[in-house]
Amino acid sequence: MLDRIRIVLIGTSHPGNIGGTARAMHNMGLSDLALVAPRCEPLTADTVSRASGADHVVHAARRVETLEEAVTDCTLVVGASARSRTLPWPMTTPRALAESLPAELAESAARVALVFGREDSGLSNSELQRCHAHVTIPANPDFSSLNLATAVQVLAYECRLAWLAREEMGDEAPSEAPRPEPLANHQELEHYFAHLERTLITIGFYDPARPRQLMARLRRLILRSRPERMELNILRGILTATEQETHRRSEP
Amino acid sequence: MLDRIRIVLIGTSHPGNIGGTARAMHNMGLSDLALVAPRCEPLTADTVSRASGADHVVHAARRVETLEEAVTDCTLVVGASARSRTLPWPMTTPRALAESLPAELAESAARVALVFGREDSGLSNSELQRCHAHVTIPANPDFSSLNLATAVQVLAYECRLAWLAREEMGDEAPSEAPRPEPLANHQELEHYFAHLERTLITIGFYDPARPRQLMARLRRLILRSRPERMELNILRGILTATEQETHRRSEP
Q1: What pLDDT score does A12 carry?
Q2: Longest distance between any two alpha carbons in chain B, whole Å
Q3: How many Å from the N-terminal Cα to the C-terminal Cα in chain A?
Q4: From the list B53, B145, B160, which residue is nearest A138 (CB)?
Q5: CA end-to-end distance (rounded Å), chain B
Q6: CB count, 10 Å around CB of A226?
Q7: What is the pLDDT of residue A172?
Q8: Of B20, B138, B157, which is closest to A147 when you measure between CB atoms?
Q9: Tens-digit pLDDT profile for residues B76-85
Q10: pLDDT digit string (tens) for B208-231?
């Protein structure tokens, strides 16, 4: 289970935090790290020092330019956020999230990404809207921003405890009935959202110049429902049919 | 409750870890920090940088030379330890420990100390034997040593969650019947152990030149029972009576 949990760091500024993240991950038995557009050289003396023997996690990390690339194959994407946003998103806690992971990862193709933002500004609204849910570490309301590697530690710790609890149950663990249909992954969902946006523009329902959070609201709705791949195919079929009909009617 | 949980760092080498500890504490709503014989200047630019706005915790920290001084008034002393020792001590986990704290701290005079050792070598055997229990963060057996400030974060996080759970229960919280007698604090216990050792030498039962873990075993036994102050007075009365009788009989 732990090998299918990916830690994604976006726009990290301090190599020490990448090293600290690697140490926290290896301490808790995680190994899959992705670095999205780091704003520093990821492997410096500081990295190695803070990694304290876990720098192999950084060596093995995938380095990509966009969140998209980092989570393409993920069936659940959760963003760490201390802030509440204008458009409220499904929120969870580290413990509730971790306790859901054994079921979430029951299917072997399932992948979970835990996404952490920049030291100074966290995740952007656009990044947060690519997540199924947001996770917030309960903290002092007057001083709620944790160090990046420390926040990774808390999430990774809860993941490990949830994994250990499942391991201890052993054969007594209720066997998850495998989902009859696999969930859509991040890439399939994003293709759908892009298709949806084009279609809504075509039919004159959506004006990108006056977005009014329409796409964000639709994202939130669809992501909350955790669509299966099959269901997403149906939704895309509807979009295609809509486009064809619109096109047909616009012909002379 | 959180204001009566003290974080004690012994022999810390890196100012950054003191700053990181301060940040983790303030993030989780803790404020009572004691530094025992730090092996670095506690307040450097590194401290302030890692504290990231929580350096007031370091300014307010008590700086002492011995563990004794740091925990004198504490009714529960728990040492963080990754290692299993030759003489097994009561062990707990961060979660079980935190869940016991609301009851543990029901009485207003109660104080809990969470004690963390050196970056390179942890707590000494002698320090571990001054603790009622040892707490171990579940970690990768092949890479179990967490960064100091990160370990503080995990413990402080569990303390905060336990406190929040109690707060949420509000009036529904089962009111802890106040203990009829207060618990002995660390200083009273240590006075007793010193007295016990003297008495055992006097009666020829204990030879400091051949300790054979006798005092450690007695410490473990007594600490496990969490003696009330009144009970400790009785135990000390027994020692005094033993000494007097021995003295009387040795007179001509």
Answers
A1: 98
A2: 70
A3: 57
A4: B160
A5: 57
A6: 16
A7: 56
A8: B20
A9: 999 999 766 6
A10: 999 888 999 899 888 988 899 988
User: What is chain A's length?
Assistant: 252
For residues B71 and B186, the answer to whether their CB atoms sit within 8 Å is yes
Provide, as residue numbers in chain A, all residues whose Cβ is less than 8 Å from the Cβ of B149. Answer: 147, 150
The domain ranges of chain B are 2-172, 186-250
Can you identify the CATH homologous superfamily of domain A2-172?
SPOUT methyltransferase, trefoil knot domain (3.40.1280.10)
CATH of A186-250, one of 1.10.8.590, 2.120.10.90, 2.160.10.10, 3.65.10.10: 1.10.8.590
pTM of the predicted model over 0.90: no
CB spacing of B29 vs A140 below 8 angstroms: yes
Q: Tell me the pLDDT band of B171, cut-offs 50, 70 and 90.
A: low
The chain A residues in contact with chain B (CB within 8 A) are 20, 23-24, 26-29, 50, 52-54, 95, 137-140, 143-147, 149-150, 153-154, 157, 160-161, 164
Residues in CB range of A45: below 8 A, 6 or more apart: none
- pLDDT higher than 90, residue B164: yes
Residue type, position B218, single letter: L
Catalogue the E-assigned strands of B44-129: 62-64, 76-80, 91-92, 112-116
Q: Count of CB contacts below 8 A, A vs B?
A: 82
* DSSP assignments along chain A, one per residue: -GGGEEEEEES---HHHHHHHHHHHHHHT--EEEEES-SS-SSSHHHHHHHTT-THHHHT-EEESSHHHHHTT-SEEEEE-SS--SS---EE-HHHHHHHHHHHT-STT--EEEEE-BTTTBS-HHHHTTSSEEE-----TTS----HHHHHHHHHHHHHHHHHHHHHHGGGSPPPPPPSSPBP-HHHHHHHHHHHHHHHHHTTS--TTS-TTHHHHHHHHHHHT--BHHHHHHHHHHHHHHHHHHHHHH--
Query: In this complex, do B27 and A54 lie within 8 Å of one another by their Cβ atoms?
Result: no
- State the Cα–Cα distance between residues B172 and B169, nearest whole angstrom: 5
Across the interface, whether the CB atoms of A24 and B150 are under 8 A apart is answered yes
Q: Which residues of B touch A146 (CB under 8 A)?
A: 23-24, 27, 153
Q: Given the structure tokens 């949830």, which residue do they identify?
A: A162
Over range A81-105, report the average pLDDT: 88
Between chains, do A95 and B146 touch, taking CB under 8 Å as contact? Answer: no
Q: Nearest CA of chain B to the CA of A143: how many Å?
A: 5
Rounded to an integer, what distance in angstroms lies between the CA atom of residue A5 and that of residue A156? 9
